[in-house]
């Protein structure tokens, strides 16, 4: 069996580590101290031949693994991870910290955007400062009609890493599991269970999974179809992607953005972010548009953090390589961001009794455009097609909206529509704004905070993405 790729401390996207096979003195035969001539015995010849065969087979395995990765794997679920704790900032009055596990099992639920016959998961210790020990892991398909993390027992598989049931991730490292033969379909919900002994505080997490993930009572419950639950958490920890192999490998659209991409204020546990709803729409088309969609949005995230930034995680420009180029089978990018670059400084100033001025707004516009241009350059250099999305209106959002900020939004949107070298544009602003009050969201798709859509609003966004951008017939 071929070993999976170890991404090492270089993180996702780096070249795979190739095994080095070292001959022992025993396999080289015995060297005469007097003459320096190697005295080869029949046993050593057999061992030598066996070793050559092993090296040859290993080389074939490694070559096959490289050929499948990443071109023959496709990410069908992913999330963007940040460091824990998330510190206090001008827009965040308190620290956000990932849950601690105490000899417990964490079951995390993910909805797949495409199917396949084999799967693998990717774990990450990207922001860890010490090795992460995962003592057991499993994957299974949630029972049809169940929303409580109960899995179909016949689908449960223990996960292995280089054939071992446990894995250690060094600080900064990411690691794929060994492939598992598990047929899955678009829309299937997987339960991925991780067991840790002792007390572990996650330093690599996604704070807003839009799902109630499960933390067990004490013990290893990775192979339990129905896990005893002590508490739920809205966070994802360490899990960064799920990949599939299929007869027809789907290309992947990576949706890069902020809370609007992440689906903030959508129904928890319903998979109603716009990327998830877009995946369902594409697979419901006739003929099917066989494109997987993964969501790497982060609540509060900015396009650029050149001036320090307020939101959690690195800005989109800085995390592009890890969160987009690091996805197996990535072919397309849909970029939506900039509202936090505009609104978060306004919130911080509002708390001080000040308002955003035009000079600051002009610097924000320059930073956002420069960051988008750099993202476009990186995407094109990697052979990806990238589409830009206009910033949604947000008048009425307490503290975030300002007249100078609105002018900044209009300037960025004008650049996206008319001058940015995107491969296509999705005009979310046009379809989401209120025709009678275009600086605001339509009332029927406003979640109530005047910046985030409701479920219907996210469906409207999904419907606004032309399938032709992805090479599919409308």
From TrEMBL:
Q: What InterPro entries is this protein classified in?
A: GDSL_Rv0518-like, SGNH_hydro, SGNH_hydro_sf
What the entry lists under Gene3D superfamilies is as follows: SGNH hydrolase
- Keyword annotations of the record: Hydrolase
The answer, when asked if Lipid biosynthesis is one of the entry's keywords, is: no
Residue ranges annotated for the SGNH hydrolase-type esterase domain, each copy included = 255-459
Its domain of life reads Bacteria
Renumbered to this chain, the Basic residues biased-composition regions fall at 17-30
Query: Which Pfam families does the entry mention?
Result: Lipase_GDSL_2
What is the name attached to this protein's record?
SGNH/GDSL hydrolase family protein
């Amino acid at each position: 069996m071929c070993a999976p790729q170890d991404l090492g401390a270089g993180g996702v996207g780096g070249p795979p580590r190739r095994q080095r096979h070292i001959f022992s003195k025993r396999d080289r035969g015995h060297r005469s101290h007097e003459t320096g001539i190697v005295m080869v015995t029949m046993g050593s010849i057999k061992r030598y031949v066996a070793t050559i065969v092993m090296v040859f087979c290993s080389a074939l395995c490694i070559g096959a693994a490289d050929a499948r990765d990443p071109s023959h794997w496709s990410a069908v679920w992913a999330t963007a991870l940040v460091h824990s704790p998330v510190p206090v900032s001008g827009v965040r009055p308190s620290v956000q910290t990932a849950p601690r596990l105490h000899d417990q099992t964490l079951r995390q639920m993910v909805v797949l955007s495409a199917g396949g016959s084999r799967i693998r998961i990717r774990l990450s210790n990207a922001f860890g400062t010490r090795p992460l020990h995962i003592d057991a892991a499993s994957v299974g398909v949630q029972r049809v009609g169940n929303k409580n993390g109960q899995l179909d027992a016949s689908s449960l598989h223990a996960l292995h890493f280089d054939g071992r049931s446990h894995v250690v991730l060094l600080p900064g490292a990411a690691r794929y599991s060994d492939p598992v033969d598990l047929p899955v379909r678009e829309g299937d919900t997987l339960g991925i269970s991780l067991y840790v002994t002792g007390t572990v505080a996650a330093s690599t997490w996604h704070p807003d999974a839009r799902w109630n993930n499960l933390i067990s009572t004490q013990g290893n419950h990775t192979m339990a179809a129905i896990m005893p639950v002590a508490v739920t958490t809205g966070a994802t920890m360490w899990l960064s992607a799920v990949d599939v192999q299929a007869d027809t490998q789907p290309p992947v659209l990576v949706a890069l953005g902020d809370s609007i991409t992440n689906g903030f204020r959508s129904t928890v546990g319903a998979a109603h972010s716009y990327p998830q709803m877009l995946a369902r729409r594409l697979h419901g088309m006739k003929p099917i548009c066989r494109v997987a969609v993964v969501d790497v949005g982060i609540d509060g995230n900015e396009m650029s953090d050149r001036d320090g930034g307020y939101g959690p995680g690195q800005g989109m420009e800085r995390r592009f390589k890890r969160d987009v180029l690091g996805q197996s089978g990535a072919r397309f990018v849909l970029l939506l961001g900039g509202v936090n670059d505009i609104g978060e400084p306004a919130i911080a100033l509002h708390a001080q009794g000040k308002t955003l001025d035009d000079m600051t707004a002009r610097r924000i516009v320059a930073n956002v455009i420069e960051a988008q241009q750099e993202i476009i350059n990186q995407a094109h250099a990697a052979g990806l097609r990238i589409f830009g999305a206009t910033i949604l209106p947000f008048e009425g959002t307490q503290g975030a909206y300002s007249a100078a900020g609105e002018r900044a939004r209009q300037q960025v949107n004008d650049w996206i529509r008319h001058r940015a070298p995107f491969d296509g544009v999705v005009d979310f602003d046009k379809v989401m704004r209120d025709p009678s009050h275009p600086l605001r969201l339509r009332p029927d798709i406003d979640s109530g905070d005047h910046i985030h859509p409701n479920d219907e609003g996210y469906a409207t966004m999904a419907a606004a993405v032309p399938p032709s951008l992805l090479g599919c017939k409308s």
